[in-house]
What does this fold into?
Amino acid sequence: MTDASGNTEEAGAAKDRPDAVGTGAGAGTGTGTVAPAGTGGLDVAGLQRRLAEFAAAREWEPYHTPKNLAVALSVEAAELMEIFQWLTPEQSARVMEDEESAHRVKDEVADVLAYLLQFCEVLGIDALAALSAKIDRNESRFPAKKGQVRHSME
It folds into this structure.
């Protein structure tokens, strides 16, 4: 059996895993529908809602504590790092040129983002506002040298 990340598991194992996330092509919304591929019409709140519905449909909410989600996020980030572990800088820059490697990278990025969005949802963190505030603080802490342009996210 293949889980939402394309990893092979023993039959029946994935459906009982409270740490599995609803990412990848087979991720449903809890209503039996699948969102179209690509990013058209996607937003953070909508993705968080889909992830929450996915977990609720499987009765995984009790396991989605801040601690468990933080640990799962770390594990998925480590799985992303593992892809690059022994690559040279040049090889890592070309990782998306290989179809199999590109698929693995995209799956791990999706897993990391899924756990981060669930973590933020559980703790009531607006991820985009937190990122914007952090960029503001970093711009103050690390001012650009004279003549460098300050980029906005607008």
